[in-house]
Amino acid sequence: MLIRLLTILFFLIVTGTSQLNAQEAKEQPNKKLIIGVKQTPPFIIKEENGQYSGISIALWENIAKELRLDFEYKEYDLNGLLGALRQGEVDVCINPLTVTSQRVEQFDFTQPFFITNLAIAVDKSQQNKWLSFLSNFFSLAFLKAVLLLLLVLLSFGVLVWFFERGQNKEEFGPGMKGIWNGLWWSAVTMTTVGYGDKSPKTIGGRVVALIWMFTAIIIISGFTASIASSLTVNELEFAVKGPKDLKKVHTLAVRASSGQQYLENNNIGHEETDNLKMALQQLAGEKVNAVVYDEPIMKYTIKNLDLGSKVAVIPSKFATQYYSFSLPKNSELRGRINPVLLSEINGREWRVILGEYDLEK
């Protein structure tokens, strides 16, 4: 009887365990992961045959191979990708998303795999130079500089005329004609033309001439700089040299990007567009003055669109960006991905991948 009871008990245990394992296998099948992507060269590039390549793709596929994960890519625009990630429609987003305080509240992030910064692209093609020159030539600043120069010339001309008018009537006669001759002499002396048709002969006139000869060199240099400044001030006034200058120019940012968030956080007025390609094309067409976006992506896109002759990224770097893979909140995949990701980015192959896209540091 005891043996029979033990046999029945053993059968029930084995049967129950098998059913439990079968139920768990049914509830947790070998799931194919949905990997959310958005075309973001050089991190995610869609080839003509529909396949994906790029830095993030290479990194993720190495991680997936190590973890033996089955997956498929699903493409979105940026807002759609963030929404799908928020709703749990994708298991991992491998786009180079910048880790921000707002995003940390909505998503989980892996360890960063790339560190960069924001940058500013500006239009380096100039408007019609002749029209710009003529506009500045007749500006108020230029006219003021010319009038001040004439006043100085006239002052020294009158001084030398005052001493010469009595004893040197042939060259510096009385009245307006003599004053004009004094002006002519001061201009010729200042420019070192040296015609010699007018020259002071009195002691007072020669003292004035001596002082004028030495000071004219300094004065003409100063006026030259002033005139040059008045001709170029309009171009220099609106030059974008860093993020502080963005407040006085027409700035454009990509909607939902880290660049847009930076502009909003710093109360910098700007317009928005759907993608970086559209933003750079508007910049090249002189419809805006500056575009703010992540530096490596912007540089790669400018090169890819062949806009190097019209658009340039200025040297100023600001707002450090940490790129990570993102997951829905409380995803168990983060704990599995992180160790492998850290191993990958510390390996030689990672440096080779970055080198292929001119991003090795």
From TrEMBL:
Region forming the signal peptide: 1-22
GO cellular component terms given for this protein: membrane
SUPFAM superfamilies, per the entry: Periplasmic binding protein-like II, Voltage-gated potassium channels
Locations listed in the record: Membrane
InterPro entries per the UniProt record, alphabetical: Ionotropic_Glu_rcpt, Iontro_rcpt_C, Solute-binding_3/MltF_N
Keyword Lipid metabolism: no
Name this polypeptide is given: Transporter substrate-binding domain-containing protein
Recorded topology in the membrane: Multi-pass membrane protein
Transmembrane segments: 137-163, 207-228
An MF annotation (GO) of this entry: ligand-gated monoatomic ion channel activity
KW Cell cycle (keyword) present: no
Stretches assigned to the Solute-binding protein family 3/N-terminal domain: 32-361
Keywords: Glycoprotein, Ion channel, Ion transport, Membrane, Receptor, Signal, Transmembrane, Transmembrane helix, Transport
Domain Ionotropic glutamate receptor C-terminal: 32-352
